[in-house]
Amino acid sequence: MMKRYDMIVVGAGPAGLSAAIEAAKKGMHVVVYDENAKPGGQLFKQIHKFFGSKEHKAKIRGFHIGEELLAEAAELGVEVVLNAIVIGIFPEKEVTVKVEDHVIHVKGDTILIATGASENMVTFPGWTLPGVIGAGAAQTMMNLHGTLPGKRVLMLGSGNVGLVVSFQLMQAGCEVVAVADAASRVGGYGVHAAKVARCGVPFYLSHTIISADGEDCVTGVTIGEVDKNWQIIPGTEKHFDVDTICLAVGLSPMSKLCDMAGCAMEDNPAKAGFVPTVNEYGETSVPGIYAAGDVSGIEEASSAMIEGRIAGIAAAARLGFISEETCKEEAAKQEAALEGLRQGMFAPGMRGKQITETEEGVEISQNLLKHGFVAEEEIERFPGVTHSAGVHPVIECTQNIPCNPCQDACPKHCIRIGSNITALPSIDPEKKCTGCGMCVASCSGQAIFLVNEDCGDGTAEVTLPYEFLPLPQKGDKGVALNRKGEKVCAAEVVHVRSAKAFDHTNLLTMKVPKEYAMKARFFREEETA
Questions:
Q1: How far is CA 416 from the centre of its chain?
Q2: Fewer CB near the terminus (10 Å): N or C of the chain?
Q3: What pLDDT is attached to residue 39?
């Protein structure tokens, strides 16, 4: 007899697991199938801290979120089947699954499709050489398998994936020679770009790859500037000796199962491709079949988790495990949380729009958009960049991003964001900073510094977030780098703090000449300077 479940979930990523948990909480018998050997989807590759608020699991690293979801699913009795490829979804919600070396048939009263997305590729002479890989593949090699994808890497793509993976490549010990992008503006969060730039990585916007060099593998790459018609401008070629080219040129929803199941589909550029049409609960045109996460439109993992929860709640209502009234109440709470993530400059509705000012009316840093860092003459206009006697926070958050952990992290309430999660942080002049560093450690964008502009002996101290190994020690001498990654002065480590509450973000305090207090933003040891 064919086995039957209240809900079949395809994909054990953030959306799928979140839906399974919500459904199981309501008493549903749930199975999750995933083609991989490990559950968690992209979460276990995400070693950075998430944005958002507490309800979005902000300042928690992705792999920790994955561990939490798996533990909760197991406690609720969710059945997770790995190495299980869903071959097809047929009428009457019959699902065919290849598990290991045999095929099984199961039926679900409801189905959630949470198959995620695949990486896009671009073609150029040499693109099939070993050493040309997707940024997600590089992330898998590093963060799941502990293998370096290469030693010298060029990143193509300045969206969040390209920026985050560039930083993680450096954390793993690779040298990122440049970030290039055919677009004229940095596509991802400015704080992600800034932390890459201050490590000395140059940005080449309006540039794309002309060709890759090598016979048996990549040995180099040539990029060139493009004009408004996306054609290479002669004479702008730049060559880099690299062994790896990472492509972070977008994602496409893996929606074939939705199409096979008979769901109404649309080609929606705003959602990055061919996606199922869904209602406010994530239900497709086929009653009882839901879609959540990247399969229904590319967004962040935080959004995928909420979409999954909404679908799980709706499925429970469809089968009578909860009332329609309860469904509406619970879904409304999740919708509010989702709406919070869909605010600000990077909201889905803002894609393609040229934004010149923040919500507060502050002029956007054009240098950040073109070169990956806020210029010295621009930084002072942002509300988090202030001057004060003694130790005080300097918040170089310059875009309206849905994120507010710093406001909650400060025990003295020195940092103000308010109820609008996308507001730029500001400093309360009436409150006294104790220098505890919780704001520095909590910032998902690594954009907060503690600065003592005048120590009284001609020096200043700058405390910065540091997530590289080996960890410098007190007394180590080196150089301070500015926002562009240029050496600006000599620096000495005076303190390194690590604490469980910091969650592996170490606080490195360096002493620099006081005239560099508002310029020095990264430390590099002498032997690698």
A1: 24
A2: N
A3: 84
CA separation, residue 527 to residues 166, 175, 476, 478 (Å): 22, 15, 11, 8
Per-residue b or e along 510-526, where b marks 16 or more CB atoms closer than 10 Å to that residue's CB: bbbbbebbbbbbbbbee
Q: Which domain holds residue 406?
A: 374-528
Output the CA torsion sign for 485, 486, 487, 491.
negative
pLDDT at 351: 76
Q: Which positions of the chain have pLDDT values less than 70? A: 1, 527-529
Three-class SS of residue 228? coil
Instruction: Report how far apart, in Å, the C-alpha atoms of 235 and of each of 121, 224, 240 are.
Output: 26, 8, 16
**Confidence (pLDDT) at 435:** 96
Q: Which of 216, 233, 249 delimits the end of a domain?
A: 249
Look at residue 495 in the predicted model and tell me its pLDDT: 96
Q: Within 13 Å of residue 179, how many CA atoms lie on the same side as its CB?
A: 39
**Interatomic CA distance for residues 146 and 142, integer angstroms:** 5
What pLDDT sits at residue 529?
Answer: 41
Q: What is the torsion angle, in degrees rounded to the nearest 10, for the CA atoms of residue 181, residue 185, residue 188 and residue 191?
A: 120
Cβ 469 vs Cβ 213: under 8 Å: no
Specify the pLDDT at position 388.
95
The Cα–Cα gap between 58 and 365 comes to: 25
Q: Supply angle C-alpha 434, 438, 443, rounded to 5.
A: 130
In a shared domain, residues 396 and 501: yes
202 with 181: CB under 8 angstroms? Answer: no
Q: What is the DSSP string of 306-374?
A: HHHHHHHHHHHHHTTSS-HHHHHHHHHHHHHHHHHHT-STTSGGGTT----B-TTSPBP-HHHHHHSS-
Q: Provide the edge-to-edge strand list for the sheet that holds 207-213.
A: 207-213, 220-225, 238-240
245 and 209 in contact (C-beta within 8 Å)?
A: yes
